[in-house]
Design brief:
Structural class of chain B: alpha/beta
Number of strands of chain A: 0
CATH topology of the largest domain in chain B: Rossmann fold
Number of domains of chain B: 2
Shape of chain B: globular
Number of helices of chain B: 8
Number of helices of chain A: 15
CATH superfamily of the largest domain in chain B: P-loop containing nucleotide triphosphate hydrolases
Radius of gyration of chain A: 20 Å
CATH architecture of chain A: Orthogonal Bundle
Number of strands of chain B: 11
Oligomer: heterodimer
Strand order of the largest sheet of chain B: 5-6-7-3-8-9
Largest sheet of chain B: 6 strands, mixed
Largest interface: A-B, 29 and 34 residues
CATH topology of chain A: ABC transporter involved in vitamin B12 uptake, BtuC
Chain lengths: 296, 265
Amino acid sequence: MMTRLSDFASSGFSLNLWNDFFNMWQYDFMRHAFEAGTIVALVAGVVGYFVVMRRLSFAAHALSHIGFAGAAGAVLLGLNPLSGLLLFTSGGGLTMAVLGRKASSRDVQIGTVLAFMLGLGVLFINLYKGYATEAYSLLFGEILGISSSDVIATLVAGVLIIVAIILLYRRLLFASLDEEVAEAKGISMMKMSIVFMLLIAVATSIAVQVVGVLLIFALMVTPAAVAQRLARRPSQGLAISVCIALLATWAGLFISYYVPYPVSFFITSIVFLAYISVRIVQSGIFRRMSLMSGKN
Amino acid sequence: MNNNTNIIAARDLVAAYRDKIIWRDANFSINRGEFVGLLGANGAGKTSLFRLLLGLARPNSGQLEVFGEQPSRGNPRIGYVPQRPYIDSESRIEALEYVRLSVSGTGLGFSLGKADAERQQAYDTLKIVGADDLANRALSELSGGELQRIFLAQALAGRPGLLLLDEPLANLDIRRETELIRLISDVVTKQNIAVLLIAHDINPLLPVVDRIIYIANGKVASGKPSEIVTSQKLSELYDAPIEVLRGSRGQLAVLGVEEALHHDD
């Protein structure tokens, strides 16, 4: 079983948020968790916005499962799981890009590959003679175990992704919102797909540290889905997506330091709450309820 | 500007998909200020002609020139509205931002310092198509007719000399269909550009088009409506009995094309 963050809390939650924060901040592992979590949330919020816009949510989810098999294989071979994760997600992303946009939206085929890869990962973990903690952290994230070198690796990957997105921003946006016109205007869909799938692969690989393979949707898709429902302009959408991912990660880490449940549970719950809240407000339930109460 | 400037010139043009010939021996030209209807059965190769013009595919043989040059990808002088662009029902992106993509969407990096100018250009284009009141509406909230005006604005935003419209009349009721055709006709006149419009039904186009290009049974014919829209010519092209009626005011109506199209499907 994973160590809980709350086991390290020297004192309970006091409602003095400033003191509570500094109490938590004295630990290196919490600082590393916040640093890595911040980078991952920023990257996932940005990449996720385009993932949702390009309707690649399921493909991105599948990539994380493909990555799980790679990471488990790396663990079995005594290598760094991140290297296996990166290798497999990149390979899977490239294959999807080369097969074309239609291939990325073939739910049945992707689902079949996803299940097989998950099974393969389970086999590798079963063959591994070490502790089951490795499998657990791959599946659900292990932000507690992030070292300073992991933070630096995450930062390098994160900066590369953000720089690539800044450079390609307008073309990626055009290709995501109106593929056919963008192609007619001279943007190569194949090149754009390859680059973007590689960006998803790297973003997925670093996000797995925080939320794990199974909960990648929490940071990569749900904040972006909320942003998509709110933003009138793409720049607003990116800002909303990043803000939700950041707030959920920070709040999740903070709460889990004091409450004895996993970080990933809090992160997923916060983004889910955000999504449901937006849907409820937009569906006009509140408006109808107030109208009904007005009648009464 | 010279009204007779040749914008498209096709000579003995043959289109193929992989090794299969789609149509052959196309000879036609389109001039600035002309509104041309492109008609034909499903799978006849109408969109293939668009792909050739956009430089997304190459001719099997023959010659094709657009603005006096061989077609090339990303020609800024061509505005294009594809068939049924996908609009995500969850997205709230406003029409203005969508049109703005055609102004600056192919650039690298952010358009720092130019955003206002780009938005103004997009807004001015929305005005041209009478859709400035839709500028801040989400695409997902718009009706089919409103969307077609936005798509048209997006195609016009790059200030093209040639518009390629792939079935913009699909799924529109008769009123919206007529409104859109009048709007396109106005744009052709005011902007002095050429328009090539794909449609299934010839009848709504007949009052406004200068010429018609027909693709059927691997053959391509072009000419003025009075030359092409005859029972003999259409029946020959579609390989099915088609009747052309002339109204008391000289207006033409075609019967039987729809049946011939469905027969081909």
